[in-house]
Amino acid sequence: MQRAAPTADQTTPETSASTSGIGSVDEFLALAAQLAALVFGPGGEERAAQAVEFLRRRLTGDYEVDPFGFDAELTETVLLPLLRPLYRRWFRVRVTGAANLPADGPALVVANHSGTLPLDSLMTQVAVHDEHPAQRHLRVLGADLVFQLPFVGDLARTSGTTLACNEDAERLFAAGELVGVWPEGFKGIGKPFSERYKLQRFGRGGFVAAAIRARAPIVPCAIVGAEETYPMVGNLRTVARLLGLPYLPITPTFPWLGVLGLVPLPSKWLIEFGEPIPTAGYGPGAAEDPTLVFELTDRVRETIQQTLHTLLARRSNIFF
Amino acid sequence: MRKAVVVTGVARYLGACFARMLGDDPAVGRVIGIDVVPPQHDLGRCEFERADIRNPVVADVITKARVDTVVHMNVLATPVDAGGRAPQKEINVIGTMQLLAACQKAPTVRRLVVKSSTTVYGASPRDPAIFTEEIAPKALPRSGFAKDSVEVEGYVRGFSRRRPDVYVTTLRFANFVGPTVRTPLTEYFTMPVLPVVIGHDARLQFVHEDDGLAALRLATVEDRPGTYNVAGDGIMLLSQAARRAGRPNIPVPGLVSSTVGAVLRRAKLADFSPEQIQFLTYGRGVDTTRMREQLGFEPKYTTAQAFDSFVDARCRGGILDPDRLRSVERTLVGLLRGSAGGGG
Fold first, then answer.
1. Could you say which residues from 115 to 154 on chain A have a Cβ atom under 8 Å away from some Cβ of chain B?
2. What is the rounded distance in angstroms from the CA atom of residue A304 to the CA atom of residue A223?
3. A139 versus A54: which is more confidently predicted?
4. Which residue has the higher pLDDT, B56 or A124?
5. Strand boundaries in B58-158, DSSP class E
6. Which of A319, B155, B235, B282 is 20 to 30 A removed from A234 (C-alpha atoms)?
7. How high is the mean pLDDT of chain B?
8. Is B327 within 8 Å of A4 when comparing Cβ atoms?
């Protein structure tokens, strides 16, 4: 970098390397190119060149993020590939009903929440992107705690998550996005292991009202496997309150094994996307009808609970 | 009939630019600029009246000149401009109250334009990603310029209730950038290395100085009452902006960032107030649908273009200058593809 610096003062960078007379820079770069060919295999120069272009664009800020902070390029090239080994090898996620996700237009995916850490939300994001031919991105609605935390909140926005509030949900629907919610919230993800696969209360039905307003179909989604990743056998309530967290889990491995305790158990996962429930037929004003919103919320909840039982019966062992 | 316009805050850069612009405008007959201190910039055809908007003299100016339009640009963003936080608050809040009182008594006044800011929405992890004009933030800003702006808008709303015959336009501007304007944020991006809050990447939105002035002009010569967000299209992350400016950043833990801010402020390197740090931690975005559809204003620059015009004029030659990286890329890619692009 430092040796290349004098070339930048020239106005035509195309010719700078050859005319600047710094032969050693050229030699060094040629060596780097050969090295790249070695690393990327024979004929890998093109891929190396693409990698260099990508790096340059990232380093000079030459990319776009959407108003929510979603960076589609970084999600596809870095974040999803990082999650895939966990998805394919560790949890061996099996997805059914991916065809129930619409190929375009707004829709709301509603799923059950569990597992202490929101791995279920991450795995569903991979599932939606990888198992559906349209490779859509699931735009997750997350709790405000997520955005208060350093790094976590930042990564969440980068991968397309935004705050679970009516304004953001409606804006995403208006943009024709596929939106994902885990309406049990902390009640679901932080419940003890003894209550596994028992759906908790579904918030206040705000997500259903938003879907009705946007005439977006609701796709119920049942996730089996996340409950066993970090089985929560105890809760350090006092410490959690001191840290401002909703719960602080004790699992068979955490905190006893320290950082190793953060490794999730390799449970076998099944994700099923159910048949979409259309909302377009309800007409305007339906979102203002609490009875209808509660009924629809209950129907979605019942569907997910039933599917969970079916999937559990299908899974012979929690690890296979 | 050609308009008689009063512009407050002409001693500072944007106020002077705007006064000069109105002076050349055929729709405007007379422009009177008001400020406490003499202007440092050329005001063109604008007449200057040295008056403190904190005292009632301003009412005489408005009545004598039979002013029909008042443009209030004298809400100061930084304590440095005013000589401390106490005078800043006094100029912003008491000044606005006096000005509005003067307008209320002047029967000729038909139009009031207020330059406000999107800081009224605050910045927090508990608010929606994008603010429309109706969304009230979960927690109102509690200090500095942001709090002043909220209070100023409150008094302006009160004024419009008492004088329903006056067209009141409040423009909430995103951060100004451009080749010439200087704000705490532009001075921040010209530092060689940028301190950022560790683990957070704020979403920023910019408005180009030319667009900002054009929006103010539109509100001054046309009747477009209402409150409007004014910003360029799209958003940019703080890290992305730093990279476009060729500046490396140093992550600083959140707890000490206010200390770092205080040190930088004392060293006159950049003006970091607590609400500025909050903004650079969580950021915010605003919706500009109403600006397009009701104000009828179309900015010429997107957020990215506005920022790039600022970078081209003021941030060249940073350690990670994009041109420098681009030339390295061309050389490497040229070599890899075996073409004459970079190496030959």
1. 144, 147-154
2. 9
3. A139
4. A124
5. 69-72, 111-117, 130-131
6. A319
7. 90
8. yes
A73 touches chain B (CB under 8 A): no
The verdict on a CB contact (< 8 Å) between A65 and B240 is yes
**Mutation to test the B interface, candidates A60, A64, A68, A74, most B Cβ within 10 Å:** A60
Nearest residue of A to residue B342, measured between CA atoms: A14
CA distance B162 to B111: 14
| CA angle, A287 then A292 then A293, to 5° | 55
Dihedral angle sign, alpha carbons of residues A283, A286, A291, A294:
positive
Say if residue B300 is exposed, middle or buried (CB neighbours under 10 Å; 0-12, 13-18, 19+).
Answer: exposed
- Specify whether the CB–CB gap between A158 and A79 falls below 8 A: yes
To the nearest whole Å, the CA of A159 is away from the closest chain B CA by: 13
- For residue B255, the model assigns a pLDDT of 63
Please, which pLDDT band fits residue A15 given cuts at 50, 70 and 90? very low
Kindly list the domain boundaries of chain A, sorted by start residue. Answer: 24-62, 72-229+264-314
Determine the pLDDT at residue A205.
79
Q: What pLDDT does A6 receive?
A: 39
Within 10 Å of residue B40's Cβ, how many Cβ atoms?
Answer: 11
Chain A touched by B240 (CB under 8 Å): yes
- Least Cα separation, residue A22 to chain B (angstroms): 12
C-alpha A299/C-alpha A294 separation (Å) is: 9
B296-325 residue pLDDT tens: 999 999 999 999 999 999 988 777 888 888
Task: Give the Cα separation of B4 and B67 in Å (integer).
Answer: 5
Task: Give this complex's ipTM.
Answer: 0.89
Q: Which two tokens stand for residue A99?
A: 């065809």
**Residue among A215, A47, A229, A34 at smallest CA distance from A122:** A229
Averaged pLDDT, A85-90:
96
The mean per-residue pLDDT over the stretch B232-242 comes to 96
Confidence band, pLDDT 50/70/90 cuts, at residue B257: low
pLDDT value of residue B115: 97
Cβ density class A92-110: b for 16+ within 10 Å, e for less = ebbbbbbebbbeeebbbbb
Q: What is the DSSP code (8-state) at residue A277? A: B
Q: Does residue A3 register a pLDDT over 50?
A: no
Parallel, antiparallel, or unpaired: how do β-strands A270-273 and B3-8 relate? unpaired
Q: Supply A125's token pair.
A: 């994001």
SS3 assignment, position B48: strand
Partner B contacted by A45 (CB < 8 A):
yes
pTM: 0.89
Look at residue A180 and tell me whether its pLDDT is greater than 70: yes
Top-confidence residue, A179 or B333 = A179
What CATH number labels A72-229+264-314?
A: 3.40.1130.10
The percent of chain A in helix, strand and coil, each rounded to the nearest 5, is 50, 10, 40
Task: State how far the alpha carbon of A89 is from the alpha carbons of A22, A73, A84, B100, B191, in Å.
Answer: 49, 24, 8, 68, 47
From CA B129, how far away is CA B10, in angstroms rounded?
A: 34
